Amino acid sequence: MKSLISKLLNGLVLVLAVVVLNFVLIHAAPGDPVETIAGESGGMSEELRTQLRAQYGLDQPLPVQLGRYLGKVVQGDLGHSYYFNMPVSSLILDRLAPTLLLVVVSVLLAFSVGTWLGVRASRNPNGWLSQFTTVFSIAGFSAPVFWTGMMLIILFASIWPVLPVGDMTDSASTATGWAALPDVLLHTILPATTLAFVYMAQYSRLSRASMVDVLGSDYVRTARAKGVSERNILYKHALRNAVLPVITVLGLQFGNVLAGAVLVETVFNWPGLGRLAFDSVLRRDYPTILGILLFSSILVVVMNVLTDLVYRLVDPRIKTS
């Protein structure tokens, strides 16, 4: 319990540091939200520009702006969007479910398929499946996420049009609630596969190396000498220890998955936080950008804590120590 509380406190300090750093960097970047609004509205008088800067607090020194923003964040107020003209918290909640669906499906797909490939390849380190895993991991590391997405669109929407591309549901569909679930899952296949591809390759390589190492340990040789079946050795004895590095990497890379979601959601026009972040950056919508970064930071901290808890469940030795 003390360890959990300590991690949560460290997480809060980390989130605070991230908020301050993001605020300073975003306001130091070139561009002016008022000028962006003026450009999109076809022009604006200098008087109205001054009024908008005063309304948004952009006419104040940066330390004053930062102090006001931190005061609002502590109260749960993430500010008001310059471009969308609505509370940032409402914007994030509206886009949260699609992003969580995409990220969760991608992580589960990458973890399950990648680990399975690594385990199967470890049974014969010099076999064809092991060689395939090596080539697959190299391809996964090398291919940019947006390129993979475009290749899948060309393959499954143009050459072989069997999967939908773009948005989360069919525009002609009138189904709602659970009735819309099959359509949503069908639209999730391509973006989730795109996001999972690079991590699937990494987990397969990591689990293969970990399994090869574990299968050469003394307790595995002892189990084989006792006549334990190869299947039980593989999945009941070796996998539990070999999967620990994969779980660690999965938790630490959750932030990278969220970052990759920005590109994937842009390529597939997925209505999530990534697409919202992309649109907000283009329009210099500071409150929305900061709100998304704050929310992402909290998710990463929570995932790291959950990873530590899962690690303790999988490896009893950590509980003992």
What does this structure look like?
- By secondary structure, the chain is an all-alpha fold.
- It is 77% helix and 0% strand.
- It contains 15 helices and no strands.
- It has helices at 2-28, 33-40, 46-56, 62-74, 88-122, 128-142, 145-159, 181-215, 218-225, 230-242, 244-252, 254-267, 273-282, 286-314, 316-320.
- Helix 8 crosses helix 11.
- The protein is globular.
- The mean pLDDT is 82.
Q: What ranges have pLDDT less than 50 throughout 5 or more consecutive residues?
A: none
Number of helices: 15
Please state the overall shape, judged from the principal axes of the Cα atoms: globular
| Helix-strand topology string | HHHHHHHHHHHHHHH
Mean pLDDT: 82
Straight-line distance between termini: 14 Å
Instruction: Characterize the main sheet.
Output: none
**Alpha-beta classification:** mainly alpha
Tell me the Rg in angstroms: 24 Å
- Beta-strand percentage? under 5%
Please give the number of β-strands.
0
Helix content class? over 70%
